[in-house]
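Obj.: predict assembly geometry.
Materials: sequence records (below).
Method: joint structure prediction, all chains together.
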Amino acid sequence: MMPPADRPPIEEQIAQWRAYLRRRRAIHGPDVEELEGHLRDQLGVLAEAGLAEDEAFLVAVKRMGSLDALSREFAREHSERLWKQLVTAPEAADESGKSTRSETLVVLGLAVAAALAIKVPALFGLQLGGGDEGFYARNASLFVLPLLTAYFAWKRGLHAVSGLWLAVPFAAGAIFANLFPFRAGSDTEALTALHLPIALWLAVGVAYVGGRWFAGGGRMDFVRFSGELVIYYVLIALGGGVLTGFTMMMFKAIKLDAGWLAQGWLIPCGAMGAVIVGSWLVEAKQSVIENMAPVLTRLFTPLFTAVLLVFLATMAWTGRPIDVEREVLIAFDLLLVMVVGLVLYAASARDPEAPPDFFDGLQLLLVVCALVVDALALAAIAARISEFGFTPNRVAALGENLILLVNLAWSAWLYARFLRARGSFAALERWQIAYLPVYAVWAAFVVVAFPLVFGYR
Amino acid sequence: MDLGKDLVAASATPLVLAILAEGTSYGYAIIKRVTELSGGHLQWTDGMLYPVLHRLERQGYVAAKWGAAENGRRRKYYRITKEGRAQLAAQRQRWQVVDDTLRGIWMRACTT
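Observations (raw structure tokens):
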């Protein structure tokens, strides 16, 4: 585009009008060109009739009709345009430095690399489904997260030096996942498999915010990104399931078993590649469609609150104690994770300046209910531990419970202050964001220390 | 004269098709022709023509092609198709019925 100074004023006006038109979602590039041609024809005729340039421009624009009415008419004729624009966002392409095409190539390359990476160990005799599940479970995140980090490092134009720093956590992760002599199927091995991705996700986050973790609103964007990625990943996984089902069915029809294809290639390679593709979709679509995670949060906050209230009332009414089974601690951990997620995503979609409303009260009620339920569960579990002693699973679950409890307790305090107009919502948002590394640090601690402390049990 | 939104919308299809039946044309020329034919009574908001043209294109009554204008810019030209001509004939019959009916009742009003 020419710099404004080199253009006559009328061109400047037309360019501005074109820019307004471009912003309308129902009016596409060729339509804008067609309308601009019309405007220029009109301008030519009016100028011949003796009007000054700017007068002619006013008349021509007026005759064209209001942009709102125009884009409404276009939307009525091309209603599909309000739905599309998802995979391709060509408008943004000419503004951002990196073109959509080269990004598509990078993403496809990384996705294929991730899909192939999971097959590399097979070359060294480590078979998926051949007794080496432990190895794959411990290393699953290491096949794809470095590539995802590389994608963001490339996209954000990260410096080579900071790129090398980002490689450190992955190298450390690879060492701690493979150095220890885990017993096959041991608890500590399962804990490493579960916690390593959480720890490494922080490294992805650092790349996502372009290396400046503490600057600006990048961290909240990373939270939003993570939530959307989960949703897209689930959707892609559903599609992958359908694909797998059809593959099995069709090969069965010609009396061939495609189980090895599905289990050895389709599912593992797809699961890895989908992380990259899903991330790219979230990146490409963030400005095009409404984010889903806050919508789901709005939907489920009242439902979760109602269920928790009913549960508490039932417990109080019947006097039944919590029966501490093996999985109960995990279940209550997951409940807290769910509630923290609801608080986090409600905060991510909220305007921090807005005054408290009904939904904020509901959030506080939800948090308080979760705290009460968790306190009851913890009391029951503490009794159990003092009776039967520590196991890696119990300590890990207890630690997580404590971390989430601290987060929620302080969130409840901040919410209460906000509702009584003693504090701002921004304080709650800051607290949630500042707390993010705690999860990763605890996860890293579990990966590094637990196998040693508990003797690879 | 203000014809009202509904009448303008209803007459747009036959009018555009009839103008294109005279020969290939483009947006601005079509608007000019409408003004000419109606003696300036029929004033369209210029932009509104394009959604109509796009609808006719989707329905297969007109075909569009990008070409060069005299001033060197790209311009989208529209021409009527066979289906368009059939549609124009059908529309013409319908408007004839409306016209005859109105004419009949108004002639009687004049004579009585």
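Conclusions so far: Residues 17 and 88 of chain B are 6 Å apart (CA to CA).
To do: check interface contacts against the pulldown list.
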